[in-house]
Amino acid sequence: MNTTIQKLDELLAQVRASLIKKKGLQENKQNPDNEYLIKVFNYLKNTGYITSQYEFSERFLNKNKYYFGMILSEQRQPSIDALHFLIKSISELNDTPDNPFKIDNLYDEGKDLITKRLLKYF
Hints:
By secondary structure, this protein is an all-alpha fold. The protein is built from 6 helices and no strands. It has helices spanning about 1-25, 30-45, 55-60, 65-75, 80-95, 105-120. The model has no long low-confidence stretch (mean pLDDT about 85).
């Protein structure tokens, strides 16, 4: 039973990865939250902080390894919790003394996204 579930999880991950690869991780113009996640993902990958979507999901979104691929392939909004954790992680990364890259603009953009999302509830 567990083997079947593991195989299904692997197959689902492959399908999601394939869909994202076909889309080329292009920004989704209908969803600013996903545009932001893609921008941060591409920045972190290009600078060598991460090597995969799985790592991004776990280290920077504090979610399971399939989370980033799932929200992109299904065009869902990320949770506010995931956005908050990402912004917190970016802030910590930005404050690292040996960090040659300053990413204040990504931090500020993320704070603005969360603020806009929260204001919808008032």
